[in-house]
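Reading a protein record of the kind used here takes only a little practice. Each token is a code from a learned vocabulary of local backbone shapes. With that in mind, consider the following protein and its fold in token form:
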Amino acid sequence: MTAQLIKGAEVAAQIREELKKEIADLKAKHNVVPGLVTVLVGADPASQVYVGQKEKTSKELGIYSERYDLPADTSQADLLKLIDKLNKDPKINGILVQLPLPKGLNEEEVLIAIDPKKDVDGFHPVNVGKLMIGEPDYLPCTPAGIQQLLIRSGTQIEGAEVVVVGRSNIVGKPIANMLLQKAEGANATVTICHTRTKDIAFHTKRADILIVAAGKPKAVTGDMVKEGVVVIDVGVNQIGTTAEGKRILAGDVDFDTVSEKAKAITPVPGGVGPMTITMLMMNTVRAAKVAAGLTE
């Protein structure tokens, strides 16, 4: 069996073209321009790259963009004061505070301070609760990207046995909740495995769809899956460097052995990664439409 590659970069490009048209229509017909602000505290190199990518994508799509770069010694009070100001700014529909924050800052308090209607990351407890009861305003970006990859690759989700390896608040729990809802692109039977699961392979071998966000390179191998499985590999792990100093990356799935049995599989890199920022943009557009009274 030759596995189909589910290329996140191609799906993300397709969605971005759809968003670009929607944003142009919003401006032309309703004079609405979605606005996204990113807040970066400190100078973490990876966070700087992520924020730069979000800013660049916003401009490419026609989203109004602001960026705040704050020193690492910014106080909790000053950060909360900025968030309050952004909550009240009508030009801003989405607020994204880049995590992790420097030591000494309370991430939970910061996330709760964001207006749930502007929480385009989907991390506010109000939005987490709405997801849980099947009435989400904003889906968290990486899980939303995973769901779109499954839908747009033609994967049968309804009635499927889905196994999620990993129970983080960012990926594992939300994608499990999303796929078990009574909704389009869902209606699956979902099992979650984690570090205390006695026999992970017992569960992964039953999976029609396997989503792996274990945080460990090559945690799932070919002998742990059945023929014809669809595999979404969320992990990105550096396992070495080339002679030229380039990073060697591996997913949480052993691509070589699993792809021999899979019907379809995401590559690493180029799988889930490109989808996350795209779904952030989709949430920002939705937030703008809600603020303008153009959707519920």
Summary: The chain is about 40% helix and 15% strand. The chain has a mean pLDDT of 95. The two ends are 45 Å apart (CA to CA). The first helix runs from residue 8 to 30.
